[in-house]
């Protein structure tokens, strides 16, 4: 984290495959958490507007930094 406000929109495997042992489904949060202020795993499409708004807020407040979701 270098104090640059950044929101990264990342991809994930199909929800049914998360945690099934495949590399792509195994690491989104594990990979991003050490390098971002906050990371989201969106499982409900209805949460997207709230999470995007919150992600931009978090990226810009306090010590600015990256947020992934």
Keyphrases for this structure?
single chain, 69 residues, alpha/beta, three-stranded parallel beta sheet, 3 helices
Task: Describe the protein in words.
The protein is α/β, with parallel strands linked by helices and 69 residues long. The chain starts with 5 loop residues before the first strand and ends with a strand.
The major sheet is characterized as: 3 strands, parallel
Portion of residues in helices? 25-40%
Helix/strand/pairing category: alpha/beta
**Beta-strand residue fraction:** 5-15%
What are the low-pLDDT stretches, counting only 5+ consecutive residues below 50?
none
- Give the CA-CA distance, first to last residue: 16 Å
Rg, alpha carbons: 13 Å
Beta-strand segment tally: 3
The side-by-side strand order for the widest beta sheet comes to 1-3-2
Mean pLDDT: 80
Helix run count: 3
| 3D shape | flat
Order of helices and strands: EHHEHE
Architecture blueprint of SSEs:
Elements: E1 6-8, H1 23-26, H2 28-32, E2 38-39, H3 48-60, E3 66-68
Question: How would you briefly describe this protein structure?
Answer:
This protein is an alpha/beta fold. It contains 3 helices and 3 strands; from the N terminus they run βααβαβ. The longest helix has 13 residues, at 48-60.
């Amino acid at each position: 984290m270098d104090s640059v406000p950044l929101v990264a929109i990342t991809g994930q495997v199909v929800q049914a495959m998360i945690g099934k042992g495949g590399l792509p489904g195994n690491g989104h949060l594990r990979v991003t958490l050490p390098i971002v202020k906050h990371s989201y795993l969106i499982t409900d499409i209805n949460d997207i507007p709230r999470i995007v708004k919150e992600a931009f807020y978090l990226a810009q407040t306090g010590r600015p930094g990256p947020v992934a979701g």
